[in-house]
Structure formats: structure tokens, C-alpha cells
Known about the structure:
Largest sheet: 6 strands, mixed
Shape: globular
Number of strands: 13
Distance between the termini: 56 Å
Strand order of the largest sheet: 10-9-8-11-13-12
Oligomer: single chain
Helix content: 10-25%
Amino acid sequence: MQPQTMKEGLVIRTTGSWYRVLETDGVQHDCRLRGNYRLRGNKQTNPVAVGDRVHYELQDDGTGVIHEVEDRRNYIVRKSTKLSKQTHVIASNIDLLCVVATMGLPRTSTGFIDRLLVTAEAYHIPACLVFNKVDLYDEELWAVQHELSDLYRTAGYPVLETSTLTGLGIGALREAIAGKTVLFSGHSGVGKSALLNALSPGLNLRVGDLSDWSLKGKHTTTFAEIHPIPLTTHHSPLTTYLIDTPGIKEFGMVDFNEQELSHFFPEMRAVLPECYFSNCTHRHEPRCAVKAAVEEGRISAERYQNYLNILLGIEE
């Protein structure tokens, strides 16, 4: 008996060599990749990622064989290991990256936040910041939070402050993501799974505790997965695709060069035409508009230092 007609669907889960594919009518099939499928170059460890649109054939046993992966509108990657030159595609065709951070336990560094934001800029993915667990904040942490919120809003990013315990900010987050394919990313322990449960209580994602020895989060999500959920806003019910990812300890920057890095900081990009040298790296060159803006307080000194740190990593 011959395979059925070619079908089209969305990859919502990847585990090893199996891919869970969702059709428009809600039916799901487990699929494998065609044996002789050619990889898109040799730098990516996974030829299929969550968010990919694929064409596949159903077999007699009810599983599918993927014949084609459609071109990706965008995607976000990380290094597969620290020393490897290969990359791992975390997810593709993303409408919004929500960087989930917290000033509580575990505290998220602005260096980590900026690496995620720079990667989103480079791959043409809109981003916002979600500072979670604000119910844990004391007066001192709230002062830090207000400072950081101002910093990132000035840089051009939407900022939300949320608590799954009190419900603060959950409605605003629901409005911001309705009808979109949204990637939630951040360190383990910042409360990504709890946030997704708050947005859609029916998900029942497992929520972990903090490790006693390090006050850092334990990984409760072990693979990337898309959760299609109906979100009702004050406009209308919309299907939203929530991408849950494993917590990221280190975010490896790939395929960046020192000349283009500043273009991925929106507040720097705005003043680049004023630099005297077109290939200015904004470190030691004279008549640098970026350094002048930092000295005048128009660009955050902390963001500028993170830029320099990323630049150093690129050179190494």
C-alpha cells in the first residue's frame, strides 16, 4: 500500500530523531526525517526545529516521513557545546522573544540579557523583557528593578514585571503575546514554566525548585516544545503558540563579527552615522559617537560594557 498524500504541518516537539507535527485541524503525528534528507549546511546539529513548517507523508503505521522543511523566516541558535563550531537551532519562525529574567533568586545578569537581545536583533526577532518573581522583591531589589526597567525601555524594548503568585502583569503579558508564536527563554529557575502555566492553566507544566547548593534553578524543561493555546483578549480569542525551552546556562554567540555587533544595540545603531570612522569599533577610535553618547548618559554605561565584553568574546 502506497503512502498517503503529502500533508503540511507545524513541528511542535523534537525528541531525538522523532518530530511531533501538528496539522491545522489539530491532529498530531509523530514523524521521522526522510533517510536521505540533505542537511542545510554542516553547521547545524538539528535539521528540523520546533516552529518549522514541514511537508510529510503518512505511513501505514500512522507515523509520518518528513520530505521537506520550508524556508525559515527567522530562527535563533546557540552553540551546541562550548568548544564546538556547530550550532543548535532552538526554534524557528518566531514572532516574539520573551527574555524572562529576575532580580530575585536566581539573579539574572544584564550580560546574559544583552546576549539574548543581541541574538534576537541579529536574527530579526522582536524582543521584550519579562522580569518575573517580583513578589520576592524587597525595597532594595525594587530599586534595582526600576533602574533596569528604565534602562531597557530607553534602549527601545518593552518591559513587563510579573508575578505568578499575585497575578501582577499576567494580563498585560497575555495581551502582548496573543496570536503570536512566542519563545520564552532565560536561565533555569526564573519561572518560565510557572509563567506559561499562569497564561494557560491547562498546560500543567512541571515547575522546579531552586537547587539548595547554588540557589540556581533546576532544569524542569528538557527539550523545546510548542504549546498551542487559545488566549482570549479583550479583542477576540486567538491561538497563541508558546515555545518552552530548556533553561540556558550560557548563550553562545555565533557568526558575529566586530564591525556589525554595534548594529544589534538599537540605541547604538541610532548614533552610528555620527562616528567619524565607518568601521568604528567604539573602543579606542577618535570622534566616536557611541562613546560620546555613553559619556553624556544617552547610552547606558552598563549596556556599553556588555557590548565590550561580547566584542572581546567575538575576537577570542
